[in-house]
Design brief:
elongated
């Protein structure tokens, strides 16, 4: 694989890697540095990549493993639930306050989800990965990724329903 092929086939995936790497490392600057290191590692393995049946999957799996290695080396546990969500934005001050409150509620719900469900929900609904990429990154089957996402969405929906029913005075 020459420099141009690498640039087109591998380096072009770095933009898609950023949400995953930034979330795993918890810092945009560290993520940028990690992506550079990942690209160097992939460049060194370019001969193997030429014949690989799923290059995109290999790149995403390499990135995930690299981030997990960094976290293990520093003995820093992946913080379960320390992430920033800004799902909803409003123009009016009142709407913005409501949206901030809803974001905080969703963050708390995500903290209480099982780790795989939380990661798949974030990758699919917030980072925008498709199920094939998620399955490769998580090393699970696509159908299992779909099931976990469905369970996460149901749990989030149920807790939101419960929270807002309580706030409205609908006690069942």
């Amino acid at each position: 694989m020459n420099k141009n092929d690498f640039k087109v086939n591998i380096f072009s995936l770095s933009e898609g890697l950023f949400p995953l790497v930034a979330r795993l490392l918890g810092n945009k600057t560290k993520a940028e540095d990690a992506i550079q290191e990942i690209m160097i590692k992939l460049w060194e393995k370019r001969k193997q990549l030429e014949n690989h049946p799923n290059v995109k999957g290999f790149v995403f799996l390499t990135a995930r493993n690299y981030c997990l290695d960094i976290l293990r080396k520093k003995r820093v546990l992946v913080s379960d639930g320390e992430f920033h969500l800004n799902l909803l934005k409003g123009t009016k001050e009142e709407t913005q306050l409501e949206n901030n409150e809803l974001n905080e509620i969703i963050i708390e719900i995500l903290k209480n989800l099982p780790k795989q469900q939380r990661e798949i929900f974030i990758m699919r609904d917030l980072d925008g990965y498709d199920f094939t990429e998620i399955a490769i990154i998580m090393d699970i089957k696509i159908t299992h990724a779909r099931v976990l996402l469905s369970r996460a969405r149901k749990k989030i929906s149920a807790v939101l329903q419960e929270t807002y029913s309580y706030e409205r005075g609908n006690y069942e």
